[in-house]
Amino acid sequence: MKVCIPVMGQNARLMCLLANDFYKADYYCLYDLQRDETEFFSKSDLMTRFGLDLRKRDGEDTISAIISPNMRPMAYKILRDNQITVYRPESNLLEENIERLQRGVLLPYDPADIENASSCSTSCSSCSSSCST
Question: How buried is residue 114: exposed, middle or buried, by Cβ count under 10 Å (0-12/13-18/19+)?
Fold first, then answer.
């Protein structure tokens, strides 16, 4: 299983910190749970390799989950529709969340939490969680 995690930057000090928003991050960590390997990508490299909605690809390049501190309702829907699990981090440190995922104690977002956190109405067509109608 491959997990995609937004990180703060590309230098060693910033790669260990989670970025606050998945789609606004400039860098990402791709962690392979089976191989215990990490790769780091810029946003443009990630989007080129996987696409904006991280559609599942066959074979080794399948992203099965993401870990992100904030999740917008439309982003959550797109990810869930593509069978990608979205986990809520317990820390802002990359390694701590990977370790919790390995132990099976990191919990996915509850759909009700995503919906309740949104200020958007059902008529909103924006991916932002702060819609103006």
Answer: buried
Please name the helix (run of DSSP H) or strand (run of DSSP E) that holds residue 4, with its range, or none.
strand 2-7
Tell me: the pLDDT tens digits for 44-80? 888 888 876 676 565 566 888 999 998 889 888 888 8
d(CA 133, CA 120): 8
Q: Residue 75's domain is classified under what CATH number? A: 3.30.420.130
* Number of compact structural domains in the chain: 1
Question: What count of residues does the chain have?
Answer: 133
Whole-model pTM?
0.80
| 85-87/63-67 β-pairing | parallel
Alpha carbon distance 75, 129 (integer Å) = 10
User: DSSP for 103-118?
Assistant: HT-PPBPPHHHHHHH-
Any domain includes 102: yes
Buried b (16+ CB within 10 A) or exposed e, 17-55: ebbeebbebebbbbbeeeeeeeeebeeeebeeebeeebe
| DSSP for residue 20 | S
Domain of 56 in residue numbering reads as 2-117
